[in-house]
Amino acid sequence: MFWSTVASGTNQPLQGIWGTSASDVWALGSGGTILHYNGTNWSSISSGTTQYLSGVWGTSASNVWAVGDVGTILHYNGTSWSSVSSGTTQFLTGVWGTSTSDVWAVGNNGRILHYNGTSWSSVASGTTNILFGVWGTSASNVWAVGDFGTALHYDGTTWVSFYTGTYQPLYGVWGTSASNVWAVGYGTILHYNGTSWSSVASGTTNPSNPLFGVWGSSASDVWVVGYGTTILHYNGTTWSRESSGTTPLYLYGVWGASSSTVVWAVGDVGTILRGAPPGG
User: Fold this and answer.
1) Which CATH architecture has domain 2-276?
2) Contact 273/265 with Cβ under 8 angstroms?
3) Where is 36: in which H helix or E strand?
4) CA atoms within 13 A on the CB side of 258
5) Per-residue pLDDT at 98
6) What is the torsional sign of CA 227, 95, 2, 9?
7) What is the C-alpha to C-alpha distance for residues 92 and 110, in angstroms, rounded to an integer?
8) What one-character DSSP code corresponds to residue 269?
9) What does the pLDDT average to over 45-55?
10) Residue among 100, 119, 99, 123 at smallest CA distance from 110
11) Which residues 6+ apart lie within 8 Å of 194 measured at CB?
12) What are the phi and psi torsion angles at 110 (to 5°)?
């Protein structure tokens, strides 16, 4: 994959990225920054807030959620972003769901919120550790990861803690099935095989560097980004490092359209990287 820098129009750190297709991608970050990619270029979109935004996810081009500091939750209806009551002032770091009526948000102090299609409400997590990431395969199989190696699993009824074998912070979680899940964190890549979590060699030259974002298109095409412009790729067998071709200190988020060969990464000082095959 060849990585190149794309103009973002901002110097604000960008934390999260997600989209519905190769021509409908959202990136967000500090100062209420929200950027949209239409298939040709990135442009700034009014968010109506100056709070730090850290997570973005949706079900369609007209139903997108963004979360951030002091309990900020924003909703995009296909035309504009508006604020939605969250019932908390905790920093919300991640958002993910299965449908328009089943959405999860996680954050500081073990906060977990659930959206049922009408309103957001707090759900017991069983922890006070910061939760950074949330992802799942269905309404009865959801993972949340966070500080001190925290991994919580939701079975459709309750959240239960799983032993991960590490006390390092875990920042991101993603997978392809209930038996193939990846979590990344402070110098850590963990894999869940449907029964237990185990540590996997990352292939990075400095194992103490934090890894923040993870996403893939399949079980044999997984991407991780992190400190020092780290970009790692998993080919189904091993992890290897790729050159980012840039100098910002951190890359925080990664996402791509599964129908496309293009992968996006976002990070410090408004950095947006585009990854594509040479000539692509």
Assistant:
1) 7 Propeller (2.130)
2) yes
3) strand 34-37
4) 9
5) 98
6) negative
7) 10
8) G
9) 98
10) 123
11) 178, 179, 180
12) 70, 20
Give the model's pLDDT for residue 205: 54
Instruction: Give me 132's structure tokens.
Output: 């950074």
At 243 the pLDDT is 81
Q: How far apart are CA 31 and CA 33, in angstroms?
A: 5
The token duo for 2 is 């060849």
Q: How far apart are CA 21 and CA 38, in angstroms?
A: 9
Q: Which residue has the tokens 């850590």?
A: 188
CA distances 55 to 52, 203, 238, Å, are 10, 27, 28
Q: Where are the domains of the chain?
A: 2-276
Q: Give the amino acid at 221.
A: D
DSSP letters, 155-216, are -SS-EEEE--S--S-EEEEEEEETTEEEEEEBTEEEEE-SS-EEE-----S-TTSBEEEEEE
